[in-house]
Backbone:
């Protein structure tokens, strides 16, 4: 049975923003089906007690400001759109503009789900398949 | 301490980062009120302080100023892993 999650997108410049929980932090993330991996601003991980020494290693990331090396972390818990992943790997670096959004939900988080994004009705219907 | 609405917090602490304690709810929802635990101008400093004082409670960090317009940081593509040589 699919669960519905409405979103608000007022202008064509707006992104699809969803509320997520990283450990004990409530954050707003952008739903990006064009992203293979999930990104979290490093400030959020610092707040959750992660430090640079906890990294699993570096990975190259192409951003609007060029290619940088970001860290890979296993976060204890990431919850969003009714899905909870434990010990889930995220890619993290310190965002230039943390006042906007705190990261990106990518396809790795959505693995094993059927997701329908209805832009006309501004609704996400998601069903866990496995 | 009293929970304040986002508009009240913005009026009290303009252009600052604010750490809010929020209600633990079964359903995740956009925060519309909370108890102010910390506030300041430096985002990273607030994150480090928050990791010390708010480990076990549900919190969020809010910026009370205007968000940057047309930011491009959302272009985030993880590239194939290759050994870093330097």
Residues:
């Amino acid at each position: 049975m699919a669960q519905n999650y409405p979103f608000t997108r007022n202008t064509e410049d707006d992104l699809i923003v969803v509320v997520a929980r990283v450990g004990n932090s409530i954050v707003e993330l952008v739903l990006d089906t064009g992203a293979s991996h999930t990104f979290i601003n490093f400030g959020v991980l610092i707040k959750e007690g992660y430090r640079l020494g906890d990294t699993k290693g570096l990975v190259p990331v192409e951003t609007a400001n060029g290619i940088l090396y970001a860290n890979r972390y296993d976060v204890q818990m990431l919850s969003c759109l009714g899905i909870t992943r434990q010990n889930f790997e995220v890619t993290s670096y310190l965002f230039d503009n943390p006042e906007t959004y705190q990261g990106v939900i990518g396809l790795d988080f959505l693995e094993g789900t059927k997701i329908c994004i209805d832009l006309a009705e501004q609704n996400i219907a998601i069903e866990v398949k496995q | 301490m009293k929970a304040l609405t986002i508009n009240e917090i913005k009026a009290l602490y303009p252009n600052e980062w604010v750490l809010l304690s929020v209600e633990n709810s079964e359903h995740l929802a956009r925060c519309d009120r909370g108890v102010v635990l910390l506030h300041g101008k430096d985002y990273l400093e607030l994150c480090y302080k928050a990791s010390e004082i708010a480990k076990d409670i549900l919190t969020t960090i809010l910026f009370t100023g205007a968000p940057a317009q047309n930011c491009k940081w959302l272009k985030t593509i993880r590239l194939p892993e290759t050994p870093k040589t330097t």
User: Anything to note?
Assistant: The longest strand of chain B covers residues 33-40.
